[in-house]
Amino acid sequence: MEYVYASLLLHSLGKKIDEKSVKAIIEAAGEKADDAKIKALIASLDGVDIDEAIKQAVAAPVAAAPAASGEKEEKAEEKKEESAEEQEKKAEEAASGLASLFG
């Protein structure tokens, strides 16, 4: 992912995205650059209009999260109540189990 970020940084600065520049950014960030990953990135970016790709990514529709209905909220509350009761029961069982050790 850091290689993509490096290429986006170079693009935003108006610099040429090449192996040497990407490697310099990765190493400046304190990481060891992987030449194979850099070559693959440069090859995959060949002929790509980065500005257009960014516009398409931003314009991608995002699915809205469905609103919780009243029934779902009630079921969630019931589960929480049951969970609290179950936890109390388990705590009591654990305490009785420990008490039998010291009986």
Question: What do these coordinates show?
Answer:
- With 103 residues, the chain is an all-alpha fold.
- The protein is built from five helices and no strands.
- The protein has helices at 2-12, 19-28, 35-45, 50-59, 70-101.
- Helix 1 (2-12) crosses helix 2 (19-28).
- The protein is elongated and about 70 Å long.
- The termini are far apart.
Tally of structural domains: 2
Shape: elongated
Major sheet description = none
In CATH, the topology of the largest domain is named Arc Repressor Mutant, subunit A
- Assign the CATH class of the largest domain: Mainly Alpha
- The residue ranges in which pLDDT falls below 50 over 5 or more consecutive positions are none
* CATH architecture field of the largest domain: Orthogonal Bundle
Give the percentage of residues in beta strands.
under 5%
Order of helices and strands: HHHHH
Number of strands: 0
List keywords for this structure.
Arc Repressor Mutant, subunit A, mainly alpha, 2 domains, 103 residues
Summarize the structure.
By secondary structure, this protein is an all-alpha fold. Helices cover 72% and strands 0% of the residues.
